[in-house]
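User: Please write out a complete single-protein record containing the residue sequence and its fold in token form, without commentary.

AI:
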Amino acid sequence: MAIGTNDAINKFAAALDTVSVSGGTASVASGAYSVAGDVVSGGWTNDENAIRAAFVLKFQYPSGTITTGGIQLLARLKAVDSTNDEPALTANWTGHYLGSFRTGTGMSATTNYYVELGPVALDAINASQNYEFYLLNNCGVTMTAGWTLKVRAITPGPSA
């Protein structure tokens, strides 16, 4: 079946934006959240006003193998009411769950892994919504410092 003119397709933003501090991210212990210092200053602004996004995570472990779980992606919306932000992430406020990066039990250390998540729905209260993204590591081992998170805006639209 060929895609016809005006059939619905996904349209992808040209850029794959890095939303973590490049090369300067801290390690993330198993069962812990990444920290605010790992977020790009100012967060990520959805200038495309896309309703979905896809994410790529590059990570590795210093030793051992993944024993359980996965890596969850969470979001905190910024400037939801004028300059007021949602609360910072804590054990009691986990923000917006966007999904989990798939990891496999037995993935070994010292290798860069690239895992994809999405497309996922983006919660928004404003046009050009600003986000801070966080990871929750549930893999049973500590993620090494230097992981990278990237995002690409996606929206449906008619084919040409």
